[in-house]
Predict the 3D structure of the following.
Amino acid sequence: DSGVTQTPKHLITATGQRVTLRCSPRSGDLSVYWYQQSLDQGLQFLIHYYNGEERAKGNILERFSAQQFPDLHSELNLSSLELGDSALYFCASRRDLAGGRSEQFFGPGTRLTVL
Amino acid sequence: AQKVTQAQTEISVVEKEDVTLDCVYETRDTTYYLFWYKQPPSGELVFLIRRNSFDEQNEISGRYSWNFQKSTSSFNFTITASQVVDSAVYFCALSERETSGSRLTFGEGTQLTVNP
């Protein structure tokens, strides 16, 4: 158990709909990263939040948005869903260690199926 | 830009064979971190190891060992005496703390199948 929780575990919805994926980082971790794993694109970085602020964006579509709340949990919102959005969405939290090192652990993922 | 290449898409071995998974990376940072993750059929990403760019000492953990060579930009992973439970997709990843805020760039993954 990595200590990172994600809900729901599975989500099935229809094209055009909107969904929200939730992530709770490990206790004390300020950073949250979202990744998408799809068959054609592999594992891709979407977005990074640190203590409530957006820090970096990767290949995230305009239809997708995210935020990190004061309690540090994060939500990834996907709207106007298309078949191609079907993927496994991972959240990861990072803990900074001494000497410039860090640990990044992943949640179990949310499997999104768009029909 | 950072890039990770895992040239082996699929590897199939028989139990008890040794197997090496290759990983080659590209980065412009002088300080970076390399990772290996395991993704079993259940789908979760399991952390295996993290190496710092300034520490080229090889590491062994049980049946797992990692060979980090800066000269060839490679970070290969060897499983000794493979077991059926080792069957999974293995991902190599790179993090450039300075330029990308520690986001991970993953390779394409290597599907390892260990047959009894």
The mean pLDDT of chain B is 92. The interface with chain A takes residues 31, 33, 35, 37, 43-45, 47, 50, 52, 91, 95, 97, 100-106, 108-109 of chain B (CB under 8 Å).
